Amino acid sequence: xxxxxxxxxxIRQLVTAKSMPWRYGDPVLVIEDAGIxxxxxxxxxxxxxxxxSRKYEGKCRVSAEESLVTAGLVDPHTxxxxxxxxEDELELKLxxxxxxxxxxxxxxxYRTVNAxxxxxxxxxxxxxxSRLFEVTRYGTTTIEVKSGYGIDPSQEIRLLRIINESLTSxxxxxxxxxxxxxxxxxxxxxxxINAVIGSLDEAKKLARFIDxxxxxxxxxxxxxxxxxxxxxxxxxxxxxxxxxxxYIGCSDLVKEFNVVSLDHLLNLPEQNARSIAERGSVATLxxxxxxxxxxxxxxxxxxxxxxxxxxxxxxxxxxNSWSLNMQYAMELATYLxxxxxxxxxxxxxxxxxxxxxxxDRGVLQPGYLADIVxxxxxxxxxxxxxxxxxxxxxxxxxxxxxxxxxxxTVISKECA
Length: 416
What we know:
Elements: E1 2-4, E2 6-17, E3 28-39, E4 42-48, H1 49-55, E5 56-58, E6 61-71, E7 73-75, H2 87-94, H3 99-104, H4 108-118, H5 121-137, E8 140-146, H6 153-165, E9 173-180, H7 189-198, H8 200-204, E10 209-214, H9 221-233, E11 237-242, E12 259-264, H10 272-279, E13 282-285, H11 287-293, H12 301-307, E14 311-313, H13 326-335, H14 341-348, H15 350-355, E15 372-375, E16 392-397, E17 400-401, H16 404-407
Parallel strand pairs: 1-5, 2-6, 7-8, 8-9, 9-10, 10-11, 11-12, 12-13, 13-14
Antiparallel strand pairs: 2-3, 3-4, 6-15, 15-16, 16-17
GO molecular function, one term: imidazolonepropionase activity
Binding site for N-formimidoyl-L-glutamate: 149
Binding site for Zn(2+): 77, 79, 241, 316
């Protein structure tokens, strides 16, 4: 009998992708009365509990007899690092005040920029770490964090440094992205693009990806093209905020560049789904933002499915879309976008990991990271069927059971 550090089982139902990425209609692995063997931070074996319990002896065991077990959630699109809030602007929006008027009054994104730039490094680190611990309570085990609220390249580098300095204290894995968010109000646009390009060498030491907000009111297709071209030369992974406010041709850039993920896509022309599929890119959908925008627009989920595009889900946590809960994004993906519970689970695990170019997690198979969620529900259909409750019982990160005080559940000290 082999010795391992952790056994999970018996498990009422285990559900996972068989490989990545997952496309609509691909097979999945569903095991009733399942078990998982873990050694260190990796999964060693997955199968029936009868088989796993006979083959392995665990230093520690966590039972999940009444529970669903899945890979840990991955949030591939967040604006987690900023100071301040804008809750008062919700009332203005409800009164019909245009965003341009909110900006004129000193609100909107530039208000968040001012608050963030004015905050000290220690204040921003504290904010970031607090949010990283919070997301873990909802089952997120890996998260992408963008800069973007500095605007000035030197401030963006500062934010990237703060993200990196927080990694050792974070309870989960963090992927950093350099976001080119909005043009400054007091600088020539061409000069600004040149300044951004001039910051790329330093940013590359701190960020895995570059992301450009290409849209009406943000950056033009040509400006985005110029940034992506230079970022690609320096080895950045490429991401895009595309076709959120309007279609101005941003998603067409997937034909020119190896864009890993195109995000939002509320105004994506259906025919462009084929181009995304041909490139092998991911469509990352953000249903919480649709709700916060009070928008009637929806990304063309059926066209993306039919084209064979892998779809991921994220929270898009920001001052305008204030939710750290990936479960909420999953629930809304079903009720707003018509995605099935299985499709939602794959979008929030294997495909979200794939969208971050992470090939070592999001799947419960031997050799993958032991990032796992034990749920207080009996099967995967409950994930987006039940609304509004934190359905997490236990989070396991790299083979370690997170402290019971974090999750509100009782775990033996040997497992904590």
